[in-house]
Specification:
Blueprint: H1 4-41, H2 48-64, H3 69-85
Helix pairs in contact: 2-3
The structure holds prephenic acid (PRE).
């Protein structure tokens, strides 16, 4: 039997991780909608310059929040790879 404060903290982590996944689902929906617009306009779906700027921005924002910049970059590279699979 785990102490109550450990299982309570785990429950808080479960809730928070679900909230993170909800945000990822919302982001994926936005990317899907953006790709529909880009296709209609004949724009390239993948935009390497935007990705460079996005990763730099997320690194700076992460550090301001006390999150390691390298962790933010790993996360957002994975998110961008997911966007690429949807092209
Ligand atoms: O910002 C865009 O233009 C997008 O298409 C979105 C997004 C992303 O997932 O953030 C996806 C693909 C692009 O290469 C760059 C960024």
């Amino acid at each position: 039997m785990l102490p109550a404060d450990v299982s309570e903290t785990r429950s808080a982590l479960d809730e928070l991780d679900h909230a993170l996944l909800d945000l990822i689902a919302r982001r994926r929906a936005l990317v899907g909608a953006l790709f529909v617009k880009k296709r209609a306009l004949g724009l390239p779906l993948v935009d390497p310059m935007r990705e460079v700027e996005l990763l730099a921005d997320r690194r700076v924002y992460a550090e301001r929040q006390g999150v390691p910049a390298d962790l933010a970059e790993v996360i957002f590279r994975a998110i961008l790879e997911d966007s690429h699979t949807r092209t």
